[in-house]
Amino acid sequence: MRTSKTRPRRTRPAPNGAGDAGPGRAPALLVLLCSVAAAAAAVAQPLVLGHTLDLLLRGGDAGHWPALSAALLLGEVLLDSLTALFTGRCTAGWTASIRSRAFTGLLRGVPDRARPYSPGDVGTRLTLNAADAGGVPAARAALAASLVTPAGALVALAFVDLWVAACVLAGLPALALVLRAFARDTGASVAAYQRVQAQIASRLLEAMEGAATIAAAGTGARERRRVLAPLAELGVLGGRMWALHGRALARSGVLVPLLVLAATAVGGVRLASGALSVGDLLAVCRYAQLAAGVGGAATLLGSIVRGRRARERTLALERLPALAYGTGVLPPDGPGDLELRGVRVLRDGREVLRVDGVRVPGGRTTAVVGRSGAGKSLLAAVAGRLVDPDEGRVLLDGVRLDRLTREALRTEVAFAFERPVLGEGTVAEAVAAGPRRVSPERVRQAVRAAGADAFVRRLPCGADTPLPSAPLSGGEYQRLGLARAFAHAGRLLVMDDATSSLDTATEYEVDRALRRSVRPGTRLVVAHRPSVAARADRVIWLEDGRVRAVAPHRELWREADYRALFGADGPAPRRDHGPLPEGARS
Ligand SMILES: Nc1ncnc2c1ncn2[C@@H]1O[C@H](COP(=O)(O)OP(=O)(O)OP(=O)(O)O)[C@@H](O)[C@H]1O
Question: What segment(s) does the record annotate as region Disordered (predicted)?
Fold first, then answer.
């Protein structure tokens, strides 16, 4: 096995896309400012109200004090409304930014590396988790402000009466302990809860995708049990979280009234001794309540803990390894010679592909065959650099693929897949979408070459029919994927089982049209049918991730093992297998 000395550049984490650095500090700062101002108004109120009461009790003119009390009350209401408004904006901004970073990372990531994340899991991360994560900056600002009220209340209390302040201060450590225990215990439960939530979403999505299979097999009840199986664990975890929350609230629910009662008692004694006025007692009771309000931080603390876990989960998608591109370009008018040298692909510590010294001649068609799991799709992905090999190098016209710019790579290498994803635009837009603009004429030509023109004409608005409202069969949809690849064909076209849903006659027609009317170039075709292998100039035969042979189909057909690949037994036929178009063989 030859391995390259200069390893190709490894994957690296995707950089953040432009414009998704988040809404910055401003929205959270606004939340902080408004809530601190509201807290300040709340703290000032008892002092002003107490003083107003004393003035009124004395029967004199209270002057501007009643108006000041009313203004403070109004101001607090207004500031609370502004806090709610800015909290919503801040949360929405951060949610959008976190979601878009994760989404960008997901789209940039090497597709093969995103495989462990099921669609349901990704859906949960991008929706529920992103929303929880987006709430953290506003919750953090609100938490900071929520500490201003008790702290301000304590200072004001000390200003009114030191004895009552000392009494409240003595009770606060117990409340702080309750909060600490809550934050610590909640963290673990929240992480597990989010994991199980994602598990249920994944299973549900799988079941929806396989609805036809489930209906046909009559396994609906079993599937329902499977989807809902993690529900019991979710219930336990949810119960545990609520119990923690409830316990924290219950403890602070006992502590807070006790603290207020103690403060009132001390204030009463001070009133009796003449050290406090009635207005002062009113202020003291209110301040004791505000100071003990530190317990309300438990809810905010819970949101922050939950949001931080959710952020980690969501942004794990941003950190998916992405391909790094070079600055190289391909020599103009190269024939499209592809070469794989010392290529090794490892997954989970296992070698799943090893290809060394294999050349795919330019301008010819090479089929890749092998049993299921032999490594055909991986070879196709490595050949067109959807995945970098862990070792070795792939060269197109003598240039390493990982040294090419993204543009050079994607305009010269086109892919067609078994199950293309074409988006929600019109048929024509779907075919035209790609690394470069293509003319409407080229789109029409590609649609014809893919054998799709007849059914596209029958659509309600022809090629202008939006895909979601186009009643297409699997094979028809597949042909639109082929048309897109044909429209953007460069010097290398990789077709990974891209004609699997076509009947043999249509497949043959598509092959003829491909040779006649699509830009000539190198074709690498993953094939399951002998007819496709027969039409190719050469065949790469893979077995257990290794190349067993590279030769024309007619030569390989002499081997029983090769014939067995296609379910053909018996002795080798004297003539080639499958329909051979003119000029298809060298
Ligand atoms: N991301 C991955 N993680 C783990 N194993 C992987 C990954 N990608 C591919 N493999 C493994 O590599 C082997 C080759 O996979 P590949 O999809 O290339 O097979 P294939 O020949 O195209 O099969 P089929 O004809 O069934 O599509 C399989 O054993 C597969 O499980």
Answer: 1-21
**CA–CA separation, 85 vs 79, rounded Å?**
10
- Helix (H) or strand (E) holding 18, with range, is none
CA end-to-end distance (rounded Å), the chain: 30
**Span 20-26, mean pLDDT?**
77
Distance CA 499, CA 478 (A): 7
Q: Choose among 517, 473, 499: nearest CA to 417.
A: 499
Distance between CA 60 and CA 81 in Å, rounded?
A: 36
Residue type, 29: L
Q: How far is the CA of 500 from the centre of ligand 1 (A)?
A: 17
Mean pLDDT of the chain: 85
CATH class for the domain made up of 20-321: mainly alpha
Contact 367, 532 (CB under 8 A): yes
Q: Kindly state if the Cβ of 317 falls inside 6 Å of ligand 1.
A: no
How does pLDDT run across 64-99, given as a tens digit for each residue? 888 998 999 999 999 999 999 999 999 999 999 999
Q: What residues does each domain of the chain span?
A: 20-321, 338-565
d(CA 181, CA 252): 12
Q: What is the mean pLDDT of residues 115-126?
A: 86
Q: What confidence tens digit (pLDDT) does each residue in 319-360 have?
A: 998 888 999 999 988 899 999 999 999 988 899 999 999 999
Quickly list H helices, 373-517.
376-383, 406-412, 427-432, 440-449, 453-458, 474-487, 504-517
- Quote the ligand 1 centre to 375 CA distance (angstroms): 6
Q: Which of 377, 497, 542 to mutate to test the pocket of ligand 1 (most atoms within 8 A of CB)?
A: 377
The CB of 327 under 6 Å from ligand 1? The reply is no
- CATH class held by domain 338-565: alpha beta
Q: Name which of 559, 562, 521 is nearest 541 in CA terms.
A: 562
Q: Which helix (H) or strand (E) holds 124?
A: helix 119-124
Q: Is 569 exposed, middle or buried (0-12, 13-18, 19+ CB in 10 A)?
A: exposed
Q: What is the phi/psi pair of residue 8, to 5°?
A: -65, 150
- Is pLDDT at 566 greater than 70 in this prediction? yes
Strand 413-417 and strand 492-496: the pairing is parallel
Contacts of 151 (CB under 8 A, 6+ apart): none
Cβ atoms 434, 483 nearer than 8 A: no
The crossing angle, in degrees rounded to 10, of helices 297-315 and 231-272 is: 150
Q: What is the mean pLDDT of residues 567-584?
A: 45
Report the C-alpha gap between 2 and 393 in whole angstroms: 11
- Using the mean position of ligand 1's atoms as its centre, give its distance from the Cα of residue 565 in Å: 17
CA-CA distance, 153 to 45, in Å (whole number)?
A: 10
The predicted complex's ipTM stands at: 0.95
Mutate to test the pocket of ligand 1, among 343, 352, 379 (most ligand atoms within 8 A of CB): 352
Q: Are strands 522-526 and 492-496 parallel, antiparallel or unpaired?
A: parallel
pTM of the model: 0.68
Q: Name the 3-class secondary structure at 319.
A: coil
